[in-house]
Amino acid sequence: MSDERTPLHPRAELGELPVNGTAVPFHDTGEPGDFGSTIVLVHGTGGSTESHYRTVYPMLAARHRVIGIDVQPTDDSTMDDLTQQIEAVITQRVPGAPVHLVGYSLGAVLTARIAGRSPQLVQTLTLIAGWIKTDKHQRLRNTIWTALMESDGGRTLQEFQILMAHHPQFLRTRPDGDLERLISNRTFRPGIAGEMRINFDADISLEIEQISAPTLVIGCLQDQMVPIMHSYQLFGGIRNARLAEVDAGHAVTVERPAQVFMLIDDFVREPEAVADGEMIPALTI
């Protein structure tokens, strides 16, 4: 199959799975039927496995089978549509075996929903910069995003996204060329309006109560998109959960990829090493 995407690891297969008439791309370092430790990565709004896990994916792939799923939204997509895509890839690529499910941002909302509704698919759950129910603060940001997109969807929206996504100190320390590349490379793919609508109305309160898999919640101390309060709510609302705080903005997989890798790797190898209800000690160097 011809594929213009870039492999994120030498062993990664670039494939597609048809789901309800939509071709859902994936990156997979294993083969269907492999029953070893399998980590499944789900990206956030407007992203992909490459844009949100570019560095994290190969680090994890050095120790685990890793599947990155690129959900394919349309302007009319529902949360059901996106979770069905994720579940279909999991059941086709890892039939009959639970996986270590990792979600970032909107991906955390979707994966938590799956863990609550389809517990047989999930061995462990990692939620990065996620939330349970969209609040007024998030809706205000989404409203501004929509107004900027409808006005021209250009440079101002790109700058707004970078401003909201990153830790202020991260932006202050970027060379001018790096900062310009961050801004100019921020693109808005087809279907993002549907994802933003899902963001605006997200509410997985009922599913959170049903999650039974050991869960790691990763919250970002400088997050302006999904303030860390939301991670505290996930931590308090999920049985058998532990919490890690990272000094980063919402774009934690870009700002702190090695720390994200370390947290996921440690957790999936020994999920109960940190007890339910405990904080993971802060990283010290």
Describe this structure in words.
The chain has 285 residues and is an alpha/beta fold. It folds into 2 domains: 13-133 and 202-269, 3-Layer(aba) Sandwich (Rossmann fold), CATH 3.40.50; 136-193, no CATH class. The chain has helices spanning 49-53, 56-61, 79-93, 106-117, 136-151, 155-165, 168-172, 176-184, 192-201, 205-210, 229-237, 252-255, 257-269; strands at 13-19, 22-28, 38-42, 65-69, 99-104, 122-128, 215-220, 241-246. The chain has an 8-stranded mixed beta sheet, sandwiched between helices. Strand 5 (99-104), helix 4 (106-117) and strand 6 form a beta-alpha-beta unit. Helix 3 (79-93) packs across helix 4 (106-117) and helix 5 runs antiparallel to helix 9. The protein starts with 12 loop residues before the first strand and ends in a 16-residue tail after the last helix. 42% of the residues are buried.
